[in-house]
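This section describes the prediction task in plain terms. A model, or a person checking by hand, is given the sequence of a single protein chain and must write out its three-dimensional structure as a string of tokens. No templates, partner chains or ligands are provided. The sample shown here is typical of the held-out split.
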Amino acid sequence: MLEYNVPGGKLNRGLSVIDSYRLLKEGKELIQDEIFLASALGWCIEWVQSYFLVLDDIMDNSHTRRGQPCWFRIPKVGLIAVNDCVLLRNHIDRILKNHFRGKPYYVDLLDLFNEFQTASGQTIDLITTFEGEKDLSKYSLSKHRRIVQYKTAYYSFYLPVACALVMAGENLDNHIDVKNILVDMGISFQGQENYGKPDPANIAKVKALYSELNLKGVFEEYESTSYEKLVTSIDGHPSKAVQAVLKSFLIKIYKRQK
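The expected answer:
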């Protein structure tokens, strides 16, 4: 179950912990223990991603994930996948307990991984996209921002950096601005995501409408404006090391090609 669900992605979130920690150390060579601990935290985030995806596939009634059948679609698995999600989630606490229990920042890590923001985002997402008659009054930019902020931005952008900051001995209460920048980055990133219906006829109609409305041009303007705002915010941060971390994330998402 672990081999099927955890390692199959690009591992960007997990690798970002190591990259961020290395940048925070400002060129100092990392000792083996630091690399191991940063890697362990990276894998914890990949575990978060895996159990969210398994649950998301069940709730969305999806068929494939990462080029293979969704875990719950495997004949011998079915809704046992729900319990497997519990196991995946519990593994995170076991990893943290095994490797960080004696660290002064152990409780901070537990708090980070026990945030319920992503679950809240998933709930909003499901309520607003529930199958059946669509209530278009539920669709708004503010609601979209809340979904992205809670469902994606927290664990994909903020969590890897927060883990690195905590490992580096930083107090997260002193880095609220970093969280805000990374959340804005996550919202900008989500604007690149695809249209949500798999039906070819629907996709063709939507693409034609997008072309007619010049939404590509609108998006490119939005992307450029968002990038400039993010660069200004990052350059305003007093720490060059933190600036380097934030810019490393921005480089990954700006004009990203799937």
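For orientation: The chain has a mean pLDDT of 86.
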